[in-house]
């Protein structure tokens, strides 16, 4: 791209040196700079990208965007701006020619349910024969191939790159999980959403946002940033049972579609029942009441499919098609996913790592428990992250007959510090603190008896544990099945 044209989107800048006529790529990481590219220095939480500018030049960068003049050797021009984060959003969107304008962009935000709802919408789109891309905690899925990604919502450059790739591969829609970090840190700058979906807002990430008010306001950016262009067919889907929805409705002028179980809503569910590995309910829609029977477990998944149903109905899809797509859905990876095993136990892998999600996961399992059997619940939480939620997580977990308190990604925190904080919330004495997660999983099997239900929560789809700064292989399901085979020979 012509350098002048690219830089035209930054209004105030000082240029030092001779700009090259064109740049071939843009980058924020010196380790992946291509020759003849533009490197933007980003101040991170751990290191400052300005310190890697020389490395970027050595690797072939011919333009460096920085917030102060740097001493650099080599043939390079410097562009000095006030705020490199803001410049990144503007430049990335321009470089990829605003790809979100060419796709229907669906953003899903909320504390719990982002992965589930975005996965459900994506799979329903694919089920309809539509080309859709998906990005979120599980990675970036494009035409059936899953690529790893660092974050739920990635930095502004990776985000624009992903949307561009989706466009180039012929996708018509991209479904994105939108995290509060992503919104607050401007990672979604330049993404023009068409549909914004809200799941719920409960306690999480207060280490980053400070208060629930700040956390809720960060999520609100998805709705307030939808814009005012009524020639575009944009709309919002809100959970009528969550009080934050009223505030989000006021942040946008686009049509609001609601769903829920308790309060008045356009899409509602009645008569939910959970038996034989199936969830059944009556879906109340603008066209009447329809019975649904689906493989996704638990009341939380009834909310999730109602949100998806509203998205599809507002898009103009017929109710009978929507119902067929919901009934065809397979469980979402690592979200109350039943482990296929011939052990005399029911084992579920789940990603609950907030108090609300733990409550919902237990609610989802209880209908399957016989009075003579136990519900064993294993929860872990991350080290060096929001500590204030830990006692509340264990308080919710106390509804299980036996609780095992462990870690998910301990990072640099001592095991006892994590399990000790969790233990403060326990409401009964039937629990064990075992910081080593593999040992904790084996302990769950050792106390289990035929007919019991075990939920391994907190790792979901993840096949690793982050201990210190090392990512080590870990699978709750594999460890559990191996231990179970030895115990129940
Ligand atoms: C606290 C936080 O958000 N950190 C994010 C941040 O990392 P950072 O600030 O440490 O970046 P850094 O490593 O200091 O690097 C600064 C700059 O120097 C550059 N660099 C660095 C090293 C080098 O050799 N050369 C070089 O050029 C980097 O490319 C970068 O441009 O920027 C990185 C790149 O965008 C992110 O991957 C990283 O997310 C980390 C992994 C993280 O854990 N974030 C969490 C808190 C997060 O964002 N979570 C949300 C919510 C998930 C949920 O809902 O549960 C999410 O969206 O993922
Ligand atoms: N709508 C919902 N309401 C409450 N809890 C939910 C809902 N959907 C899923 N959960 C619970 O939360 C866990 C995480 O679900 P999911 O991964 O879909 O949420 P998320 O918002 O993507 O979370 P994260 O951003 O941490 O990945 C699930 O394993 C389940 O226990």
TrEMBL record:
N6-carboxylysine: residues bearing it: 219
Protein name: UDP-N-acetylmuramyl-tripeptide synthetase
Origin species: Lysinibacillus telephonicus
UniProt function note: Catalyzes the addition of an amino acid to the nucleotide precursor UDP-N-acetylmuramoyl-L-alanyl-D-glutamate (UMAG) in the biosynthesis of bacterial cell-wall peptidoglycan.
Cofactor: Mg(2+)
Modification note: Carboxylation is probably crucial for Mg(2+) binding and, consequently, for the gamma-phosphate positioning of ATP.
Binding site for UDP-N-acetyl-alpha-D-muramoyl-L-alanyl-D-glutamate: 30, 151-153, 179, 187
Entries under InterPro entries matching the protein: Folylpolyglutamate_synth_CS, Mur-like_cat_sf, Mur_ligase_C, Mur_ligase_C_dom_sf, Mur_ligase_cen, Mur_ligase_N, MurE/MurF_N, UDP-N-AcMur-Glu-dNH2Pim_ligase
Primary localization: cytoplasm
Gene Ontology terms: cellular component: cytoplasm
GO biological process: cell division; cell wall organization; peptidoglycan biosynthetic process; regulation of cell shape
